[in-house]
Design brief:
single chain; about 35% helix; 4-stranded antiparallel beta sheet; alpha+beta
Length: about 100
C-alpha cells in the first residue's frame, strides 16, 4: 500500500495532516502547484511501512520557487495573531 502525508502548518492555529490513500503522487503535485496545499511543513510517502520525506521532490515537480519567509506577505490570520500578541504585550506592561 502506498499513500502520502501532507503536513500543513497554520502557524498559531496549529497543523493539519492530510492523508488520503486514494490520492496519487500526481494529484499531490497538482494540488501543490495549484496552491491548494500551502505552508507545507513536509510531505511523506509511505510505502509498505517505509517512510520517505519527498518534500523537495514534490516542490520541484510542482515548479514552485522557494520564497524566503521574509518575502511572504502576511495573511489576515497572521495580522490578527500579531494584533493579539501586541495587545497581550501591552496588558503585561500595564500598571495595576
Amino acid at each position: 500500500m502506498q499513500y502520502f502525508v501532507v503536513m500543513i502548518d497554520y502557524g498559531r492555529r496549529g497543523r493539519e495532516a492530510i492523508v488520503d490513500p486514494e490520492v496519487t503522487r500526481r494529484e499531490v503535485v497538482s494540488r501543490v502547484a495549484s496552491g491548494e496545499y500551502k505552508n507545507i511543513s513536509f510531505i511523506h510517502e509511505i510505502v509498505d511501512g517505509a517512510v520517505e520525506n519527498i518534500t523537495a521532490d514534490i516542490l520541484a515537480e510542482a515548479a514552485l520557487p522557494e520564497i524566503p519567509l521574509a518575502e511572504i506577505p502576511a495573511t489576515g490570520a497572521d495580522l490578527q495573531a500579531d494584533r493579539f500578541d501586541h495587545e497581550r504585550d501591552l496588558r503585561k506592561h500595564e500598571s495595576v
